Automatic annotation (TrEMBL), chain A:
The lineage of its organism: Bacteria, Pseudomonadati, Pseudomonadota, Alphaproteobacteria, Rhodobacterales. It is a multi-pass membrane protein. The chain crosses the membrane at residues 9-29, 102-125, 137-168, 188-211, 253-275, 295-318. This is Dipeptide transport system permease protein DppB. GO terms for biological process: transmembrane transport. Belongs to the binding-protein-dependent transport system permease family. Keywords: Cell membrane, Membrane, Transmembrane, Transmembrane helix, Transport. It is found in: Cell membrane. One of its GO terms (cellular component) is plasma membrane. It comes from Pelagimonas phthalicica. InterPro entries: BPD_transp_1_N, MetI-like, MetI-like_sf.
From TrEMBL, chain B:
This is Glutathione import ATP-binding protein GsiA. SMART domains: AAA (SM00382). It comes from the Bacteria. It comes from Pelagimonas phthalicica. Residues 8-263, 298-553 form the ABC transporter domain. GO terms for molecular function: ATP binding; ATP hydrolysis activity. Its main location: membrane. InterPro entries: AAA+_ATPase, ABC_transp_ATP-bind, ABC_transporter-like_ATP-bd, ABC_transporter-like_CS, Oligopep_ABC_C, P-loop_NTPase. It is an enzyme of class 3 (hydrolase). GO terms for cellular component: plasma membrane. It is a peripheral membrane protein. The gene is gsiA_3.
Amino acid sequence: MLWFILKRILWSIPTMVLISIATFIIIQLPPGDYVTAYIAELEETGESISALEAVELRKSFGLDRPMIVQYWDWISNIVFYGDFGLSLDWKLPVSDLLWDRIALTLMISTLSLLLTWVIAIPIGVYSATRQYSVFDYVFTVLGFLGRGIPDFLLALVLMWMGFAYFNFHVGGLFSPEMADAPWSLAKFWDLLVHLWVPVVVLATGGAAGLLRVMRANMLEELGKPYVETAYAQGMGEREVVWRYPVRVALNPFFSTVGWALPALISGDVITAVVLNLPTTGPLLLRALLNQDMYMAGGFILILSIFTIIGTLLSDILLTLTDPRIRHA
Amino acid sequence: MRNPENLLEIENLKVSFQMRNFTLDAVKGIDLSIKPGEVVGVVGESGSGKSLTARAILNLMPRTAQTAGSVKFKGRDGVVSVLDHGRESRTMRELRGGQIGMIFQEPMTALSPVHSIGQQVMKTLTLHTDQRKKALEDRAAELMDLVQLPDPRGMLKKYPHQLSGGMRQRAMIAMALSCNPSLLLADEPTTALDVTTEAQILNLIRGLQEQFNMGVMFITHNFGVVAELADRVTVMNHGIVEETGTIDEIFYEPKAAYTQKLLSLIPRLPEYAMADNVEAIPAQPAAFSKKADEDVVLKVENLKMYFPTQKDWRGRVTEQLKAVDDVSFTIRRGETFGLVGESGSGKSTVARAILRAYQPTAGTVSFQAPDGNFHELTELQGDRLRRMRAHMQMVFQDPYSSLNPRMTVEQLIGEPMVNQGETNQKLIREKAAALLHQVGLKPDMLSRYPHAFSGGQRQRIGIARALVTNPSFVVLDESVSALDVSIAAQTIDLLRELQETLKLTYLFITHDLSMIANFADNIGVMQKGKLVEAGDTVSFFANPREAYSRRLLNAVPIPDPRRARRLQARREKEALSA
C-alpha cells in the first residue's frame, strides 16, 4: 500500500516535467508575443512606438532569447524560488496575483463540491430505492431542470432576486467597503453572506448531473445478488442499502475527485465573470487574451499540478475503499 | 401446522405480480413441507417459480409481489406464519440468517466485493447474537474451519475476489450456518461451479446437514444433483407442483407426465462409463477404423496461446498466462470433436485461436476448405482471412448477450453475408428466411427483434446466423449450456439434424460430460492449457486413461440414485484400497 503510493508519487515527477514543457510550448504557440499585443493596444489608443523601441522592449522582457533558455529561466525560478515571473500585463509578480485567488477559488469550489455531494447522494439513493415513486419523478424533473439551466443564468436570477427583494449586495465575495480591509470577524461574516450565491449556483448544476449518476449506479448495484444476501442475513433495509450498494456505487465518485480539482479552478469562468468573483477563472481568461505568457503559463502549470495531485488522490481513495483495486 | 412434526409447511402458496394490463401468476398455489433433518430437492426449469418460493419463505420477494396462502415455519419461539409479518418486521429479520440460512447461485456476486469475508460473517453474528469482538472472531474462524477452508484466521481477512468460486461458496455456506439455522435454503448453489468443485460442495452440504440435523430445501434444475443429495423431491413447472415423492419414487416411478418427459430428456453418462457396466460397451463403429488422412478437415499442431500478465518498465513481458500450451488434435469431416474441461482450462481460447479471433503465439492450424485445398489459418491476413471465415462459424453460449438487441432477425442472420461482401438485399432475405425455416422458426419472424424470442428461440437464431455463409466447420462454444433441459434437448436434436443434412463438422466445447458423451465422436480433455487426453468417445468414457479425466468423470452427478449409490460405494472402496 505504502509502496503503491510512493510509486505513484515518483511517477508524477516526470509527468510534471513533461507537462511544464508542454505548457511552455503551448503558451508560445500563438503568433506574436506580449510586445505585439502591447503595440496593438497602443495603436488602438492612437499611440505608437518605433521598431527600435519594440526591440528594446523585447530585450528587457527577455523575449529575444532562444525558447529553451526562456523555458529554463522560467522553470528554474519556479522550482527553486517559487517565483513565477512578472506578469507583463499587471506589472506585478505572478505569484502575488495567483495565490490569493487560488485560495478563494479552492474555498468556493470545495464548498460547492461538498454541497453537490450532500444534495446528490441522498437524493440519488432515495430515487433508486423508491424507483418510479412520486418523489422519484419529482427529483427527476428537478434534476433535468438543474442540468438544463445554464449556471450563469441561475446566477443572474439569484442576483436579481437578492437585489430586488432582499436588498443584498450581490456580486463579488465582499462588500465594497470590506474588500481591502484586513481579516476580521466582520469581514468573515461579510464573506459568508456573499458566498452562498456562487456556492449554490455552482452546486446546482453539478448536483443535478450527479444525482442521475448516483441513481443509475444504485439501481445497478441494488439488483446485484449480494444485496439479497445482506437481506437474507437479517439486516434491515436502511442498513443493507447504506452499508453495501452505496459503498460500491460511490466508487465512480472517488475516481472523479481527480478531475474535480482542476475543474474547480478553471471551470465556470462565465459564472465567475457574471458574479464578479475574484476567482482564478476571469484572471486566466484575461491573461490568455493579452498573451501575458508568464501569467498564463503559471496558471496552466498550477492547473496541471492540481490535475496530477487530484488523480493521485483519486487513486489513493480508490485503493482505500475498494479492495479489488488494492490487491490488483 | 397441519403436521406438528414439520419444520416448514407451505400451503396453497400463490405469488402474483400486477403488470400494466394483466396479472402474472408466478406461483399458482403450491404445497410443500420439510421435516427437521430432511433434504427436499425442488427441481424445475426456469420460470417454474422455484426461486420465488424460496424467497417467499424468507418474505423477501420483490416488493410488488402479491401473495396468498400460508407459509408456516416452526421457529425456536413457536410457529411463525411468515406471510403475516411485514418484510421489514423484527420477526422476519430475526428469522433470516438467525434460524433460516440461505445460500445463492452466484458465489462471485453474492458476497459484497468491498467487505472482507470476516466482516461479512461477523455481521450475521452481530445481528443475531450478543457476542463481542474476540468471541465473534473466534466463532467466525471456527466457521471457516467447519466449511474446510484453509487457514481459518487468515481467511477472515481475505476479500471475495481473492478466492476461487468454490472457496467463495464455502464462505457463503459458513455465513448461512453461522447462527445454527434449523432450515437451509439453497438456490442452485452449485450451478455456477465446475463439476469437481460441485462434487466437493455437495459433499460439504450433505456432511453439515447430517452434523446439525438441518432441514434443507435444495433448488436446482439438475436431476443429477438431486439424486446425490435429496431424500424427497418436488418437481415444479410453471408455478405448480407437478409431483412430490421420495427420491426413488420420482426417479423410478414418476407419475406426472412432465416428470417422465424431463427424465427422458436429461443427458446421462452412458451405461458403460467408468467401466460401470462392461457389457454395455459398444463395439467400435466401422467408420471409425477408417481414418484416412484425406478426411481431415482441421489439423491443429502445437498450438500455443500466451497472454502477457506482467510487463517490466521497458514493456518486456515478465510473466505470461499460458492459456493454451502446446495443443494438437485433428478433426475429420462430418464428425463432432468434443473439447471438455473445467473453466479456465483454455478450451474456449483454443476455439478462438483456431478462428483467428486471437493470433496464436505459436503453432499451426491447417484447415481444408470446401475446394479441397489446405490453408494455414495462422498465416492468413486481411481479405483472404475474411473469405476463409465464411467456411468456419461459431455459435455462442449466451443466447441473450450474443444477439445485438438493436438489430432485427433479418439483419442478425444476414450480417455474416454482408461481411462477406453480399449486397443483394433480396438474396439475403431469402437466405435468412430459408434458414429460419430450417432451424424450426417461422420465416415471418424476420422483422422482429431478439427480445421477442425465448432463450431457446434465440439460440436457434444464433445457429441460423452461423449457417448463413454455408460453412463446413462450426464451433459450438457451450451452445446449449445456458438452456433449460427440454430446450437443450431440442437444440441438440436440431444440431444433429443440421450436421446430417449439411455435412457439418463440429468442434463442441463444453463442461457437460453427460451431454457430450451422447453427441461427440471424439473427445479431448483440457486441463490448465494442456490437452491431457484425447480419443474416441467410447474408449474415453469406458476407460479414461488419465487421472484427471477419471476425477472429472467421477464428479459428474448421476441422475440415477441407485447407480449413484453404487458408484459412491465403489469410489469409497477405491479410496480405501488406495
